């Protein structure tokens, strides 16, 4: 009788477990469908936006002189050459400033810094800074670079402001990439008598480069497409010369904003064409970074 009771109890437990598994599988399929539906809706809206932009701006984008001439006050004339040059210079300066500083800060916090209260405060603040609106960085750049360092409304002020905007993202992603390197690589290197810096430079950094480049791609793409901070720093919407580092400047997002605010209908097509140019610039930079990342991943 006791044996029969134990068998019945075991059968009830197995049945209950099977029912729970089936309910969880059903719930998982429901959420899978909802997530897939959300993805399809997002892709559909993105496709509509791209179609609308290409329909309005492709003709103007392919028109002679649009990429090689300076802006004009007439919607069917002129081009966006100063804006393209400014955006490229901004991206180059952002990469040159943020990558060494961001990766160096991530290496220090992850490999050298002691795990004490003040490093925890720094880590929390860096994570919080990654979510600060760009307009706040624009006000900071205006006060520090325009007035305190007296650079004025020059391209270098905009580039350094965008560097401040990009640094937290690079530091956070670089730390995660460095943290993902297996400790067995470090221990094997230390076991052979290799110094800590040699271990980091020869094993940790090469292994973490794909993850670091992911952060660089995200941050630089955000910086090139940002307009709010550049407006605060002093970017202009009309420029008839190619800018230098210490001259007045414009950028593709500012050019788009300038075109959209004008009442003539032709400027809407010019804005769409400028959006196409900005997308191609960002995709080109992302493609180069992805290629480099894949090369290091293969190695």
In words, what does this structure look like?
This protein is mainly alpha-helical and 299 residues long. It is 77% helix and 0% strand. It is built from 10 helices and no strands. The chain has helices at 2-61, 81-112, 117-129, 134-148, 155-179, 183-191, 196-224, 228-233, 252-260, 266-298. Helix 3 packs across helix 5 (155-179). It is globular. The mean pLDDT is 83. This is Phosphate transport system permease protein PstA. Keywords: Cell membrane, Membrane, Transmembrane, Transmembrane helix, Transport. Residues 84-289 form the ABC transmembrane type-1 domain.
What is the element layout, followed by pairings?
Blueprint lengths: L1 H60 L19 H32 L4 H13 L4 H15 L6 H25 L3 H9 L4 H29 L3 H6 L18 H9 L5 H33 L1
Helix pairs in contact: 1-10, 2-5, 2-7, 3-5, 4-5, 5-7, 6-7, 7-10, 9-10
